[in-house]
């Protein structure tokens, strides 16, 4: 946020323990009033009790609500507040497309399987409906009553039909005739014109008609799909805007105003916008697929027309019409959402590209670059020692430069890389194409099933194959989610390995928006392990011995539990037990139980979980030594880090994996140790900065609600702004 300039961060005090006699007491973020202590009286609590777990879907919904809350936070610039509201809309679309669709499918099959919380699918769906209706209604209230008036006060106006001047009416009429009328196709409903098959999340209108058409057919209803090629928000010419204002009109307003022109000779009694959200999940049976790429191309077409899961209609749509639409899509009344405004709010994102109002958005910052990388070969810099980058506070460009340098270096023999989400025209891909053109051995493991990026990844695979790269789609039953790059270079007559390991994707755009760690290394043990994982992905055979990395689905879950239990053992022996876990989601039951046992033993458990969290903190005798916080700010928190005090011999790991069942058992993931103590200490200090955030930090309560932290009389501390100040303003070794 831009409301304060944070001071230079003071390094956290050194830890003190029986094994480390520091004069300063240890940082105890999570102490109870009486101190951290074991609770042997509750050590036999049934940790399978459903009362100890939040429901996965409902905690996911709570994350979306925290995003919506940012639209009300006046510490954010105004345009960014609007962006948070639109992100909430996009998040809810995906929530219905995937999570609600899955529950509906489970109910249709009569599957009563429950999660650790024990709630039935029907009960969860009922709660989702109740909460989602309330929050979507609140979203439109925030838009109409708070954000749009605030934007108008800043010279950005969204004109309703009843506000159009005569000159604006004439312009809209001309625009409708020239740009809308020629490409829309109204569909009258009768026995020869059945209800059309509408694309997922498309903008449509249902029109009530009266009178007779040219063929003598009496009026009834028509459906008007809005072509996706049309902008949903149109900027008025400057000469038609009031002085000092930039003015916009919604496409839906134009259609409403001139719907009668689409049905000449008939009377339009009503025109109401609606949008159908469909099941967009894709399933490919590994036993029935011989060509994954071909199977996915077919599934992509089917995704546009999956079963309906939600119907959004204009608030003033008559019950008879909304009921008719519900019947057409085989939906229940609870699936209907009446909205006071455009049904497709996500398309307002186009506004952000049209505006030039730096006063209404976050001040930009220039990501830092470590001194060791300046003015020299990236290979030369890595040979001096491991380099850790914290994006976007530090630049993503060194990873791109490493690949570009590797593509053009005659001593580089082979490049191997995983790609999960990236663009077909990104600098990363361009470098891989160039390397393949230089007759280097280029092998790329592309995960075609990265949700909603399938089409882009199919295009990416085709481009790389045409360039001569070897393209592998990973393991059929396991998504390849690991972020790895391996380079083989000949130096002084011998082969030397270089590697990059990261917590985020090789995506230039998201690297500016998501917080992630990148490790550049020439460490022999780490590079050898990365090489073995690539061999495992491209070849066949039993799991190879991976010595330094943790590797899902083989060793990651087991070792994480072992490290948590090690903290518990230390605490029982009277030593300090402390762990910090930062990830996007925590839903895997065995990991949660291990954390409960650690809490019972007296381990301080600080969890920074951005999204879903099924663990209940603050339960007496079970989790009263656990605190869970969620950081929501201008950047998407995406780092996955595991830090263990380990009796004064701390270990810090970074990972591509979240603490979810799918990541632990159904994906290929890597988790890498920070072997350089200086880098590990730096990451621990980053984590401790998040733990003292009192501006963007939400604390999870035992009842499942989240409470926003406030500075009170103390100094405001924003972790993200502090890290921007620390890393983006200067170089860090």
TrEMBL record:
Active site residues according to the UniProt entry? 481
Q: Which residues form the Polyphosphate kinase N-terminal domain?
A: 53-158
Family matches, as InterPro entries: PP_kinase (IPR003414), PP_kinase_C_1 (IPR041108), PP_kinase_middle (IPR024953), PP_kinase_middle_dom_sf (IPR036830), PPK_C_dom2 (IPR025200), PPK_N_dom (IPR025198), PPK_N_dom_sf (IPR036832)
Cofactor requirements of the protein: Mg(2+)
* Cellular component, GO annotation: polyphosphate kinase complex
| Polyphosphate kinase middle domain boundaries | 168-351
Tell me any Pfam family this protein matches: PP_kinase_N
Keyword field contains Iron = no
Q: What is this protein called?
A: Polyphosphate kinase
């Amino acid at each position: 946020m831009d409301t304060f300039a944070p001071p230079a961060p003071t390094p956290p005090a050194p830890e003190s323990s029986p094994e480390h006699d520091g004069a300063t007491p240890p940082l105890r973020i999570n102490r109870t009033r009486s101190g951290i202590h074991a609770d042997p009286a509750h050590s036999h609590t049934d940790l399978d009790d459903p009362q100890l777990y939040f429901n996965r879907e409902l905690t996911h919904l709570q994350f979306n609500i925290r995003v919506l809350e940012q639209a009300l936070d006046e510490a954010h610039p105004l345009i960014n507040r609007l962006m948070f509201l639109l992100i909430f809309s996009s998040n809810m679309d995906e929530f219905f497309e995937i999570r609600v669709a899955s529950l509906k499918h489970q109910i249709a099959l009569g599957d009563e399987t429950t999660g650790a919380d024990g709630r039935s699918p029907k009960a969860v769906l009922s709660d989702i409906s109740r909460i989602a209706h309330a929050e979507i209604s609140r979203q439109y209230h925030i838009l109409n009553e708070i954000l749009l008036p605030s934007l108008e006060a800043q010279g950005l106006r969204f004109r309703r039909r009843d506000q159009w001047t005569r000159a604006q009416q004439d312009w809209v009429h001309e625009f409708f005739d020239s740009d809308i009328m020629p490409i829309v196709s109204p569909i009258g409903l009768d026995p020869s014109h059945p209800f059309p098959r509408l694309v997922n999340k498309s903008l449509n209108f249902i029109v009530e008609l009266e009178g007779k058409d040219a063929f003598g057919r009496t009026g009834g209803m028509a459906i008007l799909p809005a072509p996706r090629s049309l902008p949903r928000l149109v900027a008025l010419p400057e000469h038609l805007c009031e002085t000092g204002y930039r003015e916009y009109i919604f496409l839906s307003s134009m259609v409403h105003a001139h719907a009668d022109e689409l049905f000449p000779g008939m009377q339009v009694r009503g025109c109401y916008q609606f949008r159908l959200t469909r099941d967009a999940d894709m399933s490919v049976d590994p036993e029935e697929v011989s060509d994954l790429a071909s199977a996915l191309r077919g599934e992509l077409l089917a995704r546009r027309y999956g079963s309906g899961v939600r119907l959004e209609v204009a608030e003033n749509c008559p019950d008879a019409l909304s009921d008719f639409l519900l019947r057409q899509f085989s939906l229940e009344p609870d699936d209907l959402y009446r909205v006071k405004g455009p049904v497709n709010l996500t398309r307002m994102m186009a506004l952000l590209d049209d505006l030039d109002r730096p006063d209404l958005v976050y001040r930009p910052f220039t990501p830092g670059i470590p001194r060791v990388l300046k003015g020299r070969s990236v290979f030369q810099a890595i040979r001096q020692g491991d380099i850790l980058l914290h994006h976007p506070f530090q630049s993503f460009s060194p990873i791109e430069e490493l690949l570009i340098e590797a593509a053009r270096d005659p001593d580089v023999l082979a490049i191997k890389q995983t790609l999960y989400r990236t663009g077909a025209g990104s600098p990363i891909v361009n470098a891989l194409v160039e390397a393949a053109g230089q007759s280097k051995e280029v092998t790329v493991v592309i995960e075609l099933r990265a949700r909603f990026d399938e089409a882009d990844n199919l295009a990416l695979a085709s481009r790389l194959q045409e360039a001569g790269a070897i393209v592998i789609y990973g393991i059929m039953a396991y998504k390849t989610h690991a972020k790895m790059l391996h380079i083989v270079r000949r130096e002084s007559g011998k082969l030397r390995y270089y590697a990059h390991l990261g917590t985020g994707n090789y995506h230039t755009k998201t690297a500016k928006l998501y917080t992630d760690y990148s490790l550049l290394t020439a460490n022999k043990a780490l590079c050898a392990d990365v090489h073995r994982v690539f061999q495992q992905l491209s070849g066949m055979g039993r799991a190879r011995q991976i010595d330094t990395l943790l590797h899902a689905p083989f060793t990651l879950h087991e070792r994480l539990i072992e490290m948590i239990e090690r903290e518990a053992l230390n605490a029982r022996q009277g030593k300090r037990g402390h762990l910090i876990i930062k990830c996007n989601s925590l839903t895997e039951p065995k990991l949660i139980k291990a954390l409960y046992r650690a809490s019972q033993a007296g381990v301080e458990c600080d969890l920074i979980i951005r999204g879903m969290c099924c663990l209940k903190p603050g339960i007496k005798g079970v989790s009263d030594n656990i605190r869970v916080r969620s950081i929501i700010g201008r950047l998407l928190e995406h780092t996955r880090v595991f830090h263990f005090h380990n009796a004064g011999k701390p270990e810090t790991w970074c990972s591509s994996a979240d603490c979810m069942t799918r990541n632990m058992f159904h994906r290929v993931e890597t988790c890498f140790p920070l072997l350089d103590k200086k880098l590990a200490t730096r990451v621990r200090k980053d984590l401790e900065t998040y733990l003292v955030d009192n501006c963007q930090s939400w604390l999870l309560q035992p009842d499942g609600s989240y409470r926003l932290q406030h500075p009170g009389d103390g100094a405001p501390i924003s972790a993200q702004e502090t890290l921007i100040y620390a890393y983006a303003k200067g170089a860090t070794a």
